[in-house]
Amino acid sequence: MGISDNLFPSPEFEQVWTHYFSQMYGAAQETAREVLNTMGAYCEGGIDSFLDCDPMLRFRYFPEVPEHRCAELQPLRMAPHYDLSIVTLIHQTPCPNGFVSLQCNIGGTFVDVPPIPSSVVVVCGAVSTLVCGGKVKAPNHQVLAPASKQRVGSSRTSSVFFLRPKSDFTVSIPLAKTCGFNTSLTGDTATFKDWIGGNYINLHTKNGGAVK
C-alpha cells in the first residue's frame, strides 16, 4: 500500500487501512526526523522536504510452515538483508506457541527480536546511512523458520512500514559501496528508483531455496 493508486475491496476496508497508513506514516516521519537531526544528516532541501516521502506498507502473514520447510531442512523464511528505506517500522504479532521468528544482527551475532505489546520495532535503513555519512548503520535482519517441534502454533503477522524517499532521490554510488551496500550500478550517482531496481533480487537460503 502506498500514498496513491491503491485498490480496496470495500469502502470500510479502505477507511481502516488508510487511517492505519496515516498513523504509521506520521510515526515514521517523526522517528526519522529525530534520527537525522541527532546524527547531523545532510538532506538537500532540508529534512522536512526530504521526509515528504513515497512510503510503502506491507502486511505479511506467515502461516505455519509445512514439514519440509522446518528449520532442520530450511532454516530461514527470509534471508539476511538490510532495508532500502530511511527507517522501517515493524509491528509484529506473537506466535501462539512463543516462537520468535525475527532476528537482527547486532555486533556480528543474530539475536531474537520478540514482539512487545503496543510497540513497534524501528530499523534504520540504508538511506539513513547515506545521508548521515555512514554514522547510522542499516542492520541486517532475517526471519527464521521454526523447528519441527515448534511448527504448530508458529503463525504470525507482520505489518512493515517502509519510509522511503521519492524515486528521484539521488544516491551516491561510491558512498553506497563504501558503506558496504551491494549494488551493480556504476557511475557516480543514481536515482533511488534505479537503486531499488538493482537490489530487487531473489533472497535465497543457504541451501538455495527461494524465500517468499
Largest sheet: 4 strands, antiparallel
User: How many strand segments?
Assistant: 10
Shape assignment: globular
State the CATH class.
Mainly Beta
The strand line-up of the biggest sheet is 1-8-3-6
Low-confidence stretches: 201-212
Relevant CATH superfamily: B-lactam Antibiotic, Isopenicillin N Synthase, Chain
Integer count of domains:
1
Question: What is the count of DSSP helices, taking H or I runs of 4+ residues?
Answer: 5
CATH architecture: Sandwich
Alpha-beta content class: alpha+beta
What structural keywords apply?
212 residues, alpha+beta, Jelly Rolls, four-stranded antiparallel sheet, 5 helices, 10 strands, 24% strand, globular, disordered C terminus, oxidoreductase
Structure commentary:
This protein has a single domain, classed as B-lactam Antibiotic, Isopenicillin N Synthase, Chain (Jelly Rolls, Sandwich), CATH 2.60.120.330. Helix content is 25%, strand content 24%. The chain has 5 helices and 10 strands, in the order ααββββββαβββαβα. It has helices spanning 11-38, 47-50, 126-131, 173-178, 192-199; strands at residues 56-62, 76-81, 87-92, 102-106, 109-112, 121-124, 141-144, 156-163, 170-172, 189-191. A 4-stranded antiparallel sheet has the order 1-8-3-6. The longest helix is centred in the first third of the chain and has 28 residues, at 11-38. The chain is globular and about 50 Å long. The protein starts with 10 loop residues before the first helix and ends in a 13-residue tail after the last helix. The relative contact order is 0.20.
